[in-house]
Amino acid sequence: MNLFCKILLICKGYQLCMAVHFTNCPGKKTQAADFGTNRKRIYWDGEVAVSDGYVHSSTHQSGQYFEFGEHTVRIVAKSHDGNHQAHCNFGVTITDEEIPNITFCPDDVYITLGYVETSKSSLSIPDSTVIDYIDDTPVKVVLYESDEFFAGVTRVSHIYTDFSCNRAVCEFSVILQSPECTGSTFEDNCYKMECSTSNYNNYVRKCQSMNAEPVSIHSNAENEFLKQMCIDSGRNNVYMGLEAVGSTSGTLTDEQLDWNDGTPVDFIDVDAPDLDSRSWEYCHAFDRSRSYHWEEVSCNAGYCGICKHVVSSGPSPDFVAALEQSCPSNIVMETESGVDYATATWTPPVVTIDGQNVPITSSHQPGDQFILGTTLVEISATHSGATGYCKFTVYVEGLFRIFCSAVISSTACNLGTYHHAGNTATCGFTVTVIDTESPVFSGCPDDISLPTDAFLPTTNVVWSDPIASDNSGASPLVSQSFYSNDVFRLGIHEVTYNATDLSGNEAQCNFSITIFDSEDPIFFNGSRNRVVNTNPGLPTSPVWWSVTDIARDNSEEIPIINCTYVPGHVFRFGNYTVNCLATDDAGNYAIHTFYIAILDEEIPLFTSQPNSTIVETDSRQPHALMEWIIPTVFDNSMEEVFVNSTHQPNTTFPIGDTTVTYWAYDIFKNVNQFSFNITVLDTEVPVFFNLTANITVFTEVSVNFAHVNWVVVDVWDNSGEPLNVTSTYSPGDLFYVGLTDVTYTAIDQSGNIEWFTFSILVLDRESPVFIYCPTDIVIPTWYRSPYVNVTWQLPNVTDNVGVHEIVSNYNPNDVFRLGGTTVIYNATDRAMNFEDCQFNITVIGNFQIF
Questions:
Q1: Of 206, 290, 320, 605, which sits 20 to 30 A from 105 (CA to CA)?
Q2: Where are the beta strands (DSSP E) in 666-733?
Q3: How far apart are CA 521 and CA 533, in angstroms?
Q4: Is residue 75 exposed (0-12), middle (13-18) or buried (19+ Cβ within 10 Å)?
C-alpha cells in the first residue's frame, strides 16, 4: 500500500484542538486502460472514512477517467469547526495491457520463378501497418528481412512491441515456385533464345549449361508458338535441335532426321518449301526468308538458337503446397531464467509426393538452444532434381531487471535489442531534504451556476483567478483545467487549479460550474393536419407520422417526443386532436398540435343482388308478375345503411325491358347503386274470331270474273296494343275464275304473327259461243272421179274465260266422197263448258254421157 497521511493541527487562541483524521485511506490502485483507449475510470467510493470531520476537497473524483501513467490523488479533510485539516494521498497507476493493433497484415505472397531461376531478389512485399492507443510508435522487428528469397517457402514475421512490452505478431509466407515446363505447355518461362553462340555445337552446350536442351518440336501448336518467338526476335535464322543423319543428298526422310534431345520425330513442318539437304547441311533452323519455316542450314554458322527447359528448375506447385502445409511458423520466445538463451522445439515438416516421403535436411533440430536475437532455420527438400526450402526464424528476447538494495527500481523489455552484453546499472544513495508542504490557494471561487445563451448549449463564464503561494518563497507552477471567459457546455464542469512547488508538492483549488438549460425545445418539422380515408372494408385507418427529427433543442440533444396517440394508431372515422410534447433533458417542453380527420368515402357494397331476368307474359295478360330476393348490403362504417329501389318484388311488369335500380347510402351519404333488367316477352300470337267461311260464286255474265264481298274478320291480342292487320284481298275485290285464298295476317308489337285464310271459288257456267259457223256446202266431184277437195272458212268461237280447245271431225281441204257429210266443230272452254258448230257438205257427181 502506498499510503501517506498527514495531520495538520491548527489551534486559535485557547480553543480546544480537535484532531480530525482519516480512519481509512485507499491504497494504491493499479488497473489496465480500457480496451481501445488510453484511460480508465477509477472508483474509491466507500473506501474513504474521516473521523471528527468531513472531506473538504480532493484533487480527483471517484469515477473519473485517469490516463495511462502514474497519478497521485490528494484528499483534504477538515474538522467540523473548520480549524483542523488531515490529508489522504494514494497513487493511481493506469497500465497498458493491450497489444498493438495490426490493421494490415499481408497475405501470403506467391511468385513464379523465371527461366531456370532458383531465387528472386529485391521483391516488393507489402508492409504491415499498426496502431497503438498509448504508444504512438511501437517498435517493429522484422524476422527474415532479406534481399533474396529462394524457391520454396519462407516465413516472414513483423513483431510490434509497445513500451509496456505488449507484443503483436503479423506472419505471412513468401512462396516461390517454378512454371510447369512439362513439354506440353508453351510458356515463355520454358523457352529461351540463346544468341551468344558460335556454331550449332556451341548452341547445344549453351542449352545444356542451363539445364535445358536444344528445342524439339512435337506439334503444330508448339511450332507456331516458336515461330512467333522468332518473328518477335527479328533474327534471320534460329537454330532448332533437328539434325540430319546418314546421307544428306536429296530429299530427307523421317528416318534421316533426329532431335538432339532424343525425343521421337513425330512432327515435321509440312509447309516448309523443301528439306533437300546438301552435303554440308546437317542442321536445321527457322528461316526468316521462308516465313520462318524450317530450312536445312550449315552447322558452322553462329545463329541464335532456342533452348527448351523441360525439367523444372524449382519445386512444382504441388511440391510447394506440401512444404507450405508443414513448414513451422516463426518462433518468438524469452530467455530462460538466469541465462541468455532459450530452447526451441517445433514439429519437423513432412513432405509427401505421390505417396512417398521426400528426404529432409535442416540447419537446426528441435530442442536446440538459441541465443538472444534472431536465428534463421533452413529446411530443404529435394524431389526430381529440384530443391525447395522451408525457412523460419527463432527469435529470443531477454526480459531483465536491475536490482538495487534489494528493491526493484526498474523493469524493461528489450524492444528489438538482441544482445544485452554490456548493459550496466549503478546503485547508490543520496541524502535529500524533502519539502512536503503543499502550496496554498487564496481566493478560490465558489461554485457557479448559469443558464445557457439563447439557442445555444453553451455560455461564457467569467471568474477571478485564485492566487497560489508556497512556504518555499518561490512561486508555485500553476496549471488550470479551464480559463475565465471559456465557453462551457451544458452540465457540471469541475474547474481545477493545480499548484506545484519545486519539491513536487501539489495543491488544488476546485470549484464547479453548472450550466443549466431553461430554454424550451422548438418544433420545426411537426406533422401537418392529416385527412385520411378509412381502409377498404373497415371503419378505421392507421395514421403514421414522424416523431423523429421534428423538434430541436438548444442543448443539441434530441428532445423526447410523446404524443397523445402513437404513430400507427388505428383511428375510427371522425375528427381527432393530437398533441405532441417535446421534452429536453432539463425538463423544458413544447407542445405541437395537429388534427386528424378520418373520412369514410367508401360506398356501401351490395353483397347479393338479383340477376337480370327474361320471362314471358302471364297467359292472356299484357304483363308478368315478378318475385326476387331483396339484395343485402354491407358498409365499412358498420352503421345503418339506407336502401331504396324503383320497384318492389311481387309486382307486375309490362311487356318490354324494365330497369330495376337499388340505391344504398350510408350515414356519410356515400351512395352505391346497381341495376338489373326484367324483360317481359310477349310470345302469344294474336287471335282471329268471327271467321269468314269459304265462298263459291259464278262469273258475271260474259266475263271471267266476279266481284265478291264478305264480312271482315275480327282479331284480338293479349298485349292490348294496336295490331298490324293485313290481307291479301278486300271485300268487293274482283276474283277470276278459279280458287283464290284470302289470307289475313295479324302482327302484334312483339312480332308475334297469326294468319287466317279462307277461299273464294269463282265458277264459269257459260258455254263457248260460235260467232261464225260455216253454212252447208254443195260441191261436185272432180272430173271422172267420185271425190273432191272441199275447203271452208274456219268457224270463230269466243268464251268468257277463253277457249281451251276446238276439235273437228274434218278440216278444210279434206277429200270428200259423193254424198253428204256432216262437219262438226266442238269448242271447250277452260271451265270445261262446251258448244258445237255443225254444217253439211254434199258432194254431187259430175258426169258427162257420150
A1: 320
A2: 671-681, 687-689, 695-698, 705-707, 714-716, 724-727
A3: 33
A4: buried
Beta-carbon contacts of residue 761 (< 8 Å; ≥ 6 apart): 694, 695, 696, 697, 738, 739, 740
Instruction: Check if the beta carbon of residue 56 is closer than 8 Å to that of residue 511.
Output: no
CA–CA distance, 582 with 585 (Å, rounded to integer): 10
Classified as helix, coil or strand, 228 is: helix
d(CA 489, CA 486): 10
SS3 breakdown of the chain: % helix, strand, coil, rounded to 5? 5, 45, 50
Helix segments in 428-471, DSSP class H:
none
**In angstroms, rounded to a whole number, what is the distance separating the alpha carbons of residues 113 and 312?**
10
User: How far is Cα 46 from Cα 57, in angstroms, rounded to an integer?
Assistant: 16
C-alpha cell read off for 351 = 513432405
The DSSP code sequence of 292-357 is TEEEEE-TTS--EEEEE--S-SS--HHHHHHHHHHPPPPEEEEPPTTSSEEE---PPP--EETTEE
pLDDT, average across residues 631-641:
94
Q: Look up cell 504491415; give the residue.
A: 128
Q: Return the percentage of the chain with pLDDT > 70, whole number.
A: 87
Task: Give 9's pLDDT tier (boundaries 50, 70, 90).
Answer: very low
Evaluated on CA atoms 63, 64, 69, 72, the torsion sign reads: negative
DSSP element (H, E) containing 140: strand 139-143
Q: Does residue 177 contact residue 318 with C-beta atoms inside 8 Å?
A: no
CA dist., res. 47 & res. 62, Å (int): 10
Task: Encode 247-259: b = buried (16+ Cβ within 10 Å), e = exposed.
Answer: ebeeebeeebbbb
Strand partners, 788: 816
Mean pLDDT of 264-287: 78
Instruction: Return the top range by mean pLDDT from 202-211, 363-372, 468-477, 657-666.
Output: 657-666
Nearest Cα neighbor of 776 from 833, 834, 835, 816 is 816
Is the distance from CB of 738 to CB of 763 less than 8 angstroms? no
204: closest CA among 214, 195, 219? 214
User: Could you give the dihedral angle defined by the CA atoms of residues 295, 298, 302 and 303, in that order, rounded to the nearest 10 degrees?
Assistant: 10
Return the C-alpha cell found at 38: 488510453
From residue 282, give the alpha-carbon distance in Å to each of 120, 259, 266: 40, 12, 19
